[in-house]
Amino acid sequence: MKRIAPLALLLLAPLLIVACNGPGRWSKEGTTPTMAAADLADCNSFAQSASRTDVNINQDIMVARGKDWQDTGALDTMRDTYKAQNQDRSDTIVFRCMVGKGYAPG
After folding, report:
1. What is the pLDDT of residues 34-47, one digit of tens each?
2. CA–CA gap between residue 52 and residue 49 (Å, rounded)
3. If you write DSSP's letter for every residue of 1-33 in order, what string do you get?
4. Packing angle between helix 4-20 and helix 75-100, nearest 10 degrees?
5. CA dist., res. 26 & res. 39, Å (int)
6. CA-CA distance, 58 to 5, in Å (whole number)?
7. Residue 68, SS3?
């Protein structure tokens, strides 16, 4: 049982990060909802900028390999995989940014 708990936490961590990135899901003592929304927008902007290189690389790969993947029936799978990777990376950046600003998820 002791081995299952850390494994479950590891598997659920991305879901927890995504759940914490929505509006109103961050708390910080003395912060108004307007201030929290502004900080969240700032972190989202930072995440978009920080992820831009990876997104561009994935788009280039899709252009270069798209025809091959379409011929093999893997195009939708690869597109979904890249989209999920990009979203996960962005969610992680936002999470770390908000924690760095002193917010707690919740």
Report:
1. 999 999 999 999 99
2. 5
3. -TTHHHHHHHHHHHHHHHHHTSTT-EE-TT--H
4. 80
5. 10
6. 34
7. helix
pLDDT per 10-residue tile (average), the chain, 106 residues: 47 46 77 94 96 91 89 92 94 97 93
Residue (of 100, 89, 104, 102) closest to 48 by Cα position: 89
CA–chain centroid gap for 25, Å, is 15
Domain boundaries, the chain: 4-105
Nearest Cα neighbor of 51 from 4, 1, 96 is 96
Angstrom distance (rounded) from CA 20 to CA 26? 7
The conformational region for residue 73 under phi > 0 = left, psi -120 to 50 = alpha, else beta, is: left
In this structure, the number of other CB atoms found within 10 A of the CB of residue 40 comes to 21
Q: Which residues are registered as beta bridge partners of 104? A: 27
3-state class (DSSP) for residue 84:
helix
